[in-house]
């Protein structure tokens, strides 16, 4: 993908005329990231958000290049509800994506629902899941995902990291909990910014005109400090924005032509 308009660590913005073109190109990008990761270490570690993101991954379902048996999937954040609850990110990802592809169930890592009444235990348990996958293999202080896929809310939040919340300044924990989400449900766990920012590739996916004002604020005025603007990968990680023209209509930040 071209980076000619940007310094190496700056976000790369690609905008598509419509959602179908975004879905197709996002699938091609994920397939390439998967191939490079498997070639390098025999597996592909991914963290997924909920919201509208699972629907925008539909281009992966019939892609013969996707080696689902090599995927290890975690969640960027999760609502503290049973896995079959309508608010569960895991449920959305399973219904829209994982139920339609041959991914081994044991390689998808939801929260431990026996711990829903103890948020500290729940977040510690999820951190231990990450430690099992990453701690022995990476010398870094934080896990290094091959790919983290993020969405963005109208208020500029990403994961369950909301404007003005104490968790924006969390520097040590891998997984944190909150009981006071401004968006229901109030109880959630979330990866922290240090974990997100250590990923090899981070992709925001934002489509639709309702995202236009927020996307302009994040890309054109990042110092204003909206949570999505605090996603700044540690070198050599790279941040991409996959958007459509309706979402970027007000953005001055330079676009990059998509090419693999």
Automatic annotation (TrEMBL):
Residue intervals of the Glucosamine/galactosamine-6-phosphate isomerase domain: 18-241
Signal peptide span: none
Pathway the protein contributes to: Carbohydrate degradation; pentose phosphate pathway; D-ribulose 5-phosphate from D-glucose 6-phosphate (oxidative stage): step 2/3
UniProt-listed GO biological process terms: carbohydrate metabolic process; pentose-phosphate shunt
GO molecular function per UniProt: 6-phosphogluconolactonase activity
Pfam families: Glucosamine_iso
UniProt keyword annotations, A-Z: Hydrolase
Top-rank lineage group of the source organism: Eukaryota
Enzyme class: hydrolase
EC number: 3.1.1.31
SUPFAM superfamilies the record matches: NagB/RpiA/CoA transferase-like
Catalytic activity: 6-phospho-D-glucono-1,5-lactone + H2O = 6-phospho-D-gluconate + H(+)
Keyword Secreted: no
NCBIfam families: pgl
Role played: Hydrolysis of 6-phosphogluconolactone to 6-phosphogluconate.
Family stated for the protein in its record: Belongs to the glucosamine/galactosamine-6-phosphate isomerase family. 6-phosphogluconolactonase subfamily.
Protein name per the record: 6-phosphogluconolactonase
């Amino acid at each position: 993908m071209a980076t000619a308009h940007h310094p190496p660590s700056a976000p790369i913005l690609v905008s598509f005329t419509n959602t179908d073109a975004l879905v197709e190109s996002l699938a091609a990008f994920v397939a390439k990231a998967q191939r490079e990761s498997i070639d390098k270490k025999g597996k592909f570690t991914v963290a997924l958000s909920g919201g509208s993101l699972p629907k925008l991954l539909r281009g992966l379902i019939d892609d013969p290049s996707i080696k689902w048996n090599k995927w290890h999937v975690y969640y960027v954040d999760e609502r503290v509800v049973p896995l079959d609850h309508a608010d569960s990110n895991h449920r959305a990802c399973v219904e829209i994506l994982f139920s339609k592809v041959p991914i081994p169930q044991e390689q998808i890592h939801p929260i431990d629902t026996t711990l829903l009444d103890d948020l500290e235990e729940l977040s510690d348990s999820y951190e231990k899941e990450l430690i099992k996958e990453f701690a022995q293999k990476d010398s870094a202080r934080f896990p290094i995902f091959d790919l983290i896929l993020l969405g963005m809310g109208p208020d500029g939040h990403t994961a369950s990291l909301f404007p003005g919340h104490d968790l924006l300044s969390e520097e040590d924990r891998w997984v944190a909990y909150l009981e006071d989400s401004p968006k229901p449900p109030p109880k959630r766990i979330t990866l922290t910014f240090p974990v997100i920012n250590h990923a090899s590739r981070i992709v925001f996916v934002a489509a639709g005109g309702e995202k236009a004002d927020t996307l302009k604020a994040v890309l054109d005025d990042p110092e204003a400090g909206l949570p999505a603007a605090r996603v700044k990968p540690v070198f050599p990680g790279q941040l991409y924005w996959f958007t459509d023209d309706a979402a970027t209509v007000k953005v001055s930040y330079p676009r990059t032509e998509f090419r693999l």
